[in-house]
Design goal:
heterodimer; A: 441 residues; alpha/beta; Rossmann fold; Arc Repressor Mutant, subunit A; 6-stranded mixed β-sheet; 4-stranded antiparallel β-sheet; 16 strands; globular; B: 595 residues; mainly alpha; two-stranded antiparallel ribbon; 26 helices; 4 strands; 77% helix
């Protein structure tokens, strides 16, 4: 029935790519190294689609790029067909989230360019390119320029360009996340059909995604990543028969299970892994107070009534985990909500916030901010102690840089400024870069 | 360098294609690299003169084919002028491909090339002439070739720095994912250069080339007839024709020259500028089709004509074959990018330090050379008086920019908010900006002589004659892209008169205005060299200023004074750029961006 059906047990099939002890450090200036990936081990075998699933910043794209040979890992080995990967290997091709088409080349020229770089004769590469264009459903668009095409058509060009190289492994970096929901679904289905019918000249697919349903829909195996540092948390076999349906109970069950795995990490005490470090060294991610209020109100109201199942909530709000998690985690940080096993539950103050008027909300928010975010408390204390009640932002930026990279320090400060303004804990003048206790009158 | 690059990238987004390296890079004050670059550049000029002087016997007259005022010669002159122009563009293009690429790919080259380009951009182009004429004539004594090369080099100096900056900037901002695609397809450095980097840089490069060609017309007119001491050049061309007309006080010949120049610029605009800009549009990296694509009837016609296609297609295919040639098979060249990454950081840091030390030592030696050369004949009093003259010229430039702003900003806003008018006025403003204003100088001079006006005041207007149009067309461009919803919001809120100007439109066009005013100020400094001292027949009008000082010293062949004058002017331009324009740019990037 299916040409790519598992004719032999997974473990017996020939490994194509093996990753051992992979470690990736991000090093900048005098700041401590940021561990992007740590101790990653994985194997990609013939005839399987493997998904790398995780939050943004969990290093899954870094792993994919290391396998592609685009970046060098700090330590560890990657072998392709038994030989170590040095530079870009001939056996892999990559599809990009942003499509990465050359805007000055037509569809046909874009598909041909890899063969051209390889030095293939003109007639031969024309023939292969047309075959790939035909396979991927781009006939009639050969002479169009990328900017004339819709996003879906552009990604088809990206696919054709990768397939024409006849790679053994197709690498895909969030290939559908820049597309609208309907287009993405069509492309997924088409790709899975081609795969199932064995019409693509490839042996395996390795794809990065942050969409749990996409992973369950397409993959034979899903590797779930945790963040800070990026590690493989779980290796889940998906043995649902194809074609798969999102509404099947078995499908939903798997999605829920993966959600639970991902939130279990997130709800660990002291929030390491989500807000790395504690005290001043806690890196914060900016989430608008309007968004926080929106989520609180939604969970507070019926049908959730203060407690919601995250996958269900995400589906209702049409949000993906990458959008929903940071909001939920910020609420947890401020003790307006608790996360566990894929559920979010509001605290009494969270419910009070959801029902309060503007002034009540600001008061609650300010209190919780000073109590639970050490950086906010620190800034407030410094301002209180100084006779002028003024302090330059650079001072705090430098303090933060003892714990994190300048970039993270900037983000953290940005978050605390916005929250401090909302909670009226302090004010900030962007032009002069100073914190103060003044309120404009 | 970190903060510098951040400012750089922010400001770069302001006006898509302008490569105003002099303004966008670095901090607000000249740093040690600028100083080093000043030392190196000026020392090179000094060496050229000092060496050249010993080699050349004075060439009394290089009139192998004497110029005549017969209007029948004008088409031929116009053609020769244009050919020199294209020779200059070609030279600039080659320079750009070599040096900008080197700067983008090698950090050591970057340390030297980028500040040097920055300084070269700020040195008034006409100041170079004195030295290059001497140099090229000494290379080819008693032949016209030296003179031709000197003129072509003048055009080169008007364009090359700007083009190289634009190309360097583009190379540094090639999208990461396109680079990844190229790596994953194993493109060689050569293939990557022609298939990715050059196409990506094309729109910016084309726009900068075309804009600096506008300036180049000015310099070609000024340099076709020039005297440096005993050496005088008169090369057949529009510039030499004009200069002869001025010597003979022939009003009719001046008008012929103006008309010819107008026709040349018009043809250039329609047959070169617009088709190339329209063609370059396809290289723009953007996700959606642009609403306002540059249009050119010539380009459209050429694309539809089968004959043209049948000629260009094989050429294109041949060029493509060259671009995709696998040179790496002949000589294995590892990718530069990977090579830098894998080399040990400690070692490369040490090498960098050694390299910087060498550069700084060379610069110190350069300053010593300049000092020794100048102190032979000049005293401190000379330096002081030159700085005084430079201050006068600075006042002129500031006054004229203020005046042009008062006049053209309201008019530009009015035109820019009315699409029908914009469509008609904008090409005219661009045409006027390209028209070499020095062709018009004689007409103004006649008026000044006739009405016995004070040259110190009235010659001032000449330096803005050409430069003011940059303010106009940039303001029009800014006003025409001002978002409609903001216009409507202002109307609904009842913002009117001064409030509307202060709160709505002036901040809205500010980044564009800064670009225009900056270009105008650069043009004005250059123009001062030819505008502060003008002739009509036997009458010479002279205004006090560093421009007149440089021009006079050039005519007298007094090289130390030329060096002193140019140094003074360059320092003023650089400090003015840093203290005023760069701050305004940073402000515009921070506060008045509309995205």
């Amino acid at each position: 029935m299916l040409m790519n059906a598992q004719t032999a047990p997974t473990s017996l099939r020939r490994p194509l790519i093996e990753v051992k002890g992979l470690r990736h450090l991000y090093h900048k200036g005098s700041t401590p190294d940021l561990v992007v990936l740590d101790g990653v081990e994985m194997t990609l075998r013939e005839n399987e689609i493997v998904g790398l699933l995780g939050r943004s910043g969990s290093g899954k794209s870094t792993l994919l790029r290391s396998i592609a040979g685009l970046i060098q890992p700090t330590s560890g080995t990657i072998t392709f067909g038994g030989t170590p990967v040095v530079g870009c290997s001939e056996g892999v091709s990559m599809v990009f989230q942003s499509f990465a088409l050359f805007p000055w080349l037509t569809v046909l020229e874009n598909v041909e360019i890899g063969l051209e770089a390889r030095g293939a004769p003109a007639a031969e590469r024309r023939k292969s390119a047309l075959a790939a264009i035909d396979l991927i459903g781009l006939d009639g668009f050969e002479n169009a320029y990328p900017k004339e095409l819709s996003g879906g058509m552009r990604q088809r060009v990206g696919l054709a360009r990768a397939l024409v190289m006849h790679p053994q492994v197709l690498l895909m970096d969030e290939p559908f996340s820049a597309l609208d929901v309907l287009t993405a679904e069509t492309l997924r289905t088409d790709l899975i059909d081609l795969w199932s019918e064995g019409r693509m000249p490839i042996k395996s697919i390795l794809m990065v995604t942050h969409n749990i349903e996409e992973a369950v829909l397409m993959c034979d195996r899903v590797l779930v990543f945790s963040s800070n540092p990026g590690r493989i948390d779980a290796d889940i076999n998906i043995e649902l028969p194809r074609p798969r349906s999102r509404t099947e109970p078995a499908f939903r069950e798997l999605v829920d299970r993966i959600y639970a795995i991902m939130t279990k990490r997130a709800s660990k005490p002291s929030r390491e892994g989500v807000f790395p470090g504690t005290g001043l060294g806690m890196a914060l991610k900016y989430v608008s107070s309007n968004t926080l209020a929106g989520l609180l109100e939604t969970v507070d109201a019926s049908p959730y009534d203060g407690k919601a199942d995250l996958p269900h909530l995400a589906q209702g709000l049409q949000m993906e985990i990458d959008d929903l998690f940071p909001i939920a985690e910020t609420l947890q940080l401020l003790r307006f909500a608790e996360l566990e096993e894929g559920d979010i539950r509001l605290t009494p103050d969270g419910r009070r916030f959801a029902r309060g008027e503007v002034d009540e909300r600001k008061r609650l928010f300010g209190e919780h901010l000073v109590t639970y975010v050490p950086l906010a408390a620190h800034i407030r204390r410094v301002l209180d102690e100084r006779p002028t009640h003024h302090a330059p932002a650079t001072r705090f930026q430098e303090e933060l840089e003892d714990y994190m990279s300048p970039e993270f320090a900037g983000d953290t400060l940005h978050a605390v400024v916005a929250w401090g303004r909302f909670g009226e804990v302090f004010s900030y003048d962007d032009q002069t870069g100073t914190f103060s206790l003044e309120n404009p009158t | 360098m970190g903060s510098a690059m951040r400012l750089f990238s922010k400001a770069a987004g302001l006006s898509e294609y302008r490569a105003t390296g002099a303004v966008e890079r670095g901090g607000f004050f000249p740093n040690q690299y600028d100083l080093a670059a000043i030392g190196l550049v000026l020392a090179a000029l000094v060496l050229v003169v000092a060496g050249g002087r010993q080699m050349t016997a004075p060439i009394a007259g290089l009139e192998t084919s004497p110029i005549s005022l017969d209007p029948g010669n004008l088409p031929d002159y116009a053609l020769r002028t244009t050919l020199r122009m294209f020779a200059g563009v070609l030279a600039s293009l080659i320079f750009t491909f070599v040096f900008a690429t080197l700067a983008a790919k090698s950090r050591k080259a970057e340390i030297v090339i980028i500040p040097t380009l920055d300084i070269l951009q700020s040195i008034p182009v006409l100041g170079f002439l004195t030295f290059t004429v001497t140099f090229f004539l000494s290379l080819f004594p008693s032949s016209q070739l030296g003179a031709e090369l000197a003129v072509i080099f003048a055009i080169f100096t008007a364009q090359a720095w700007n083009m190289a900056f634009s190309f360097y900037q583009s190379l540094r901002s090639v999208p990461r994912d396109l680079e990844d695609v190229s790596s994953s397809f194993h493109m060689s450095g050569w293939q990557r250069f022609w298939k990715l980097e050059v196409p990506f840089a094309t729109p910016g490069l084309v726009w900068n080339t075309m804009l600096s060609m506008s300036g180049a017309w000015f310099f070609i007119v000024a340099s076709e007839a020039i005297s440096v001491g005993d050496t005088s050049i008169k090369l057949p061309g529009i510039g030499a024709y004009l200069s002869l007309a001025i010597d003979q006080a022939d009003v009719r010949a001046v008008l012929y020259a103006v008309a010819t120049m107008a026709i040349v610029i018009l043809l250039y605009d329609q047959f070169i500028f617009r088709p190339i800009v329209a063609w370059a549009d396809k290289f723009r990296v953007e996700t959606t089709a642009s609403q306002a694509r540059p249009k050119s009837w010539v380009y459209d016609l050429a694309r539809r004509t089968r004959l043209v296609q049948s000629v260009t297609e094989p050429i294109g295919a041949a060029l493509n074959a060259v671009a995709m040639a696998r040179l790496s098979q002949l000589l294995p060249t590892p990718s530069l990018r990977l090579a830098t990454r894998s080399s040990s950081p400690g070692l490369s840091k040490v090498l960098d330090l050694i390299w910087v030390a060498i550069v700084l030592a060379a610069a110190a030696w350069g300053f010593w050379t300049i000092y020794r050369y100048l102190s032979e004949t000049l005293t401190l009093a000379d330096a002081a008086s030159t700085l005084g003259l430079a201050s006068i010229t600075l006042l002129r430039v500031i006054a004229l920019i203020a005046l042009s702003t008062l006049i053209w900003v309201p008019i530009g806003v009015w035109v820019g908010l009315r699409p029908a008018w914009t469509e008609r006025i904008q090409p005219l403003a661009q045409f006027l900006a390209a028209f070499p204003a020095n062709v018009l100088y004689p007409i103004a001079v006649i008026a000044i002589v006739r009405f016995e006006l004070d040259p110190d005041i009235w010659l001032t207007f000449l330096i803005m004659l050409g430069a003011q149009w940059y303010i106009l067309f940039n303001v029009i461009a800014g006003a025409s892209v001002f978002p409609n919803d903001l216009k409507e919001a202002a109307a609904v809120l009842g913002l009117r008169s001064w409030n509307w100007w202060r709160r709505v439109i002036l901040p809205g066009i500010f980044p564009y205005y800064v670009t225009g005013a900056l270009t105008a100020s650069g043009g004005a400094w250059n123009a001062s060299i030819v505008a502060e001292i003008v002739k009509w027949g036997d009458t010479t009008l002279k205004a006090k200023g560093v421009g007149a000082y440089i021009a006079q010293a050039t005519t007298d062949g007094d090289y130390p004074r030329v060096v002193l004058g140019i140094t003074a002017m360059s320092i003023f331009v650089i400090v003015f750029n840093r203290l005023v324009w760069r701050k305004l740019y940073a402000f515009a990037a921070e506060r008045t961006r509309l995205d």
